[in-house]
Amino acid sequence: MKLSQRAVREFCLLTLRELDEGGLEAARVELEGVVSTAHLVRRQDNGLDLWRARGTKERQGRPRWRLLVGDGVVVSVLGESSRGQSRR
């Protein structure tokens, strides 16, 4: 899957990185790893697919992520707490 700039920026903010070139690049690389672990959950009413994924081994606690995907592009990233509620 491809990553939208919006998804990378959201992931950068959720992982508490700076929104500079270095932070965005680190977020993009980590998000690519997260996406590689994702599985399809369902198609949403808005036409986007909801995917869920676990975090990478490098991140302590390995949080879960919700990804909204349209036409093979991750368009939005949402964090999930251990109780399944959005962190955002």
Care to give the gist of this entry?
It is built from 2 helices and 5 strands; from the N terminus they run βααββββ.
Q: How would you sum up this structure, described in words?
A:
This protein is α+β, with helices and mostly antiparallel strands and 88 residues long. It has one domain. It contains two helices and five strands, in the order E-H-H-E-E-E-E. A five-stranded mixed sheet has the order 1-5-4-3-2. A hairpin with a 5-residue loop joins strand 2 (39-43) and strand 3. The longest helix has 15 residues, at 21-35. The protein starts with a strand and ends in an 8-residue tail after the last strand.
Query: What percentage of the residues does DSSP assign to strands (E)?
Result: 25-35%
Mean pLDDT: 87
Return the string of H and E elements: EHHEEEE
User: Which strand order spans the largest sheet, edge to edge or round the barrel?
Assistant: 1-5-4-3-2
> In DSSP terms, counting alpha (H) and pi (I) runs of 4 or more, how many helices?
2
Principal-axis shape equals globular
Radius of gyration computed on alpha carbons: 12 Å
Terminal Cα span = 23 Å
Largest sheet: 5 strands, mixed
What's the total number of strands? 5
Structural domain count:
1
Helix vs. strand class: alpha+beta
Question: Runs with pLDDT <50, length 5+?
Answer: 82-88
Helix content: 25-40%
